[in-house]
Amino acid sequence: MAAERLPALGRRVFITTGHKDLAAFADLPACRFLVRLIEPPSEPLPANMELLLARGPFEPAGETALLRDRGIEVLVTKNSGGSATAAKLDAALDLGLPVLMIERPALSASESVESVEAAANWVLGAVL
Prior knowledge:
By secondary structure, the protein is an alpha/beta fold. The chain has helices spanning 2-9, 60-69, 86-95, 116-127; strands at residues 12-16, 32-37, 49-53, 74-78, 99-102.
């Protein structure tokens, strides 16, 4: 788990995994977290976490400045797919920071069809 690896990598952590994963990091009193979320969490953050509310897209230069100015030593983020995480990853690379990437959960099995007609028939069959 990412939280177990943090103390060996650094103590100033920028975490962008979303509010659902924060509890895993709460029991690391030696670490200080800068947590970036789009909206405030429903629960108060632990004392070792500072909240930064912001919505991307973010530019690499701004991300580099944020990491450098805040003394960040480690980036923890999710593998969200796409280019949404590119700027912070580029910034971490530019600054030589380690990155802990949390993988996406495995997708559950789902049905698929080969054509629009088959999809319509599947939907109609599910409704009837």
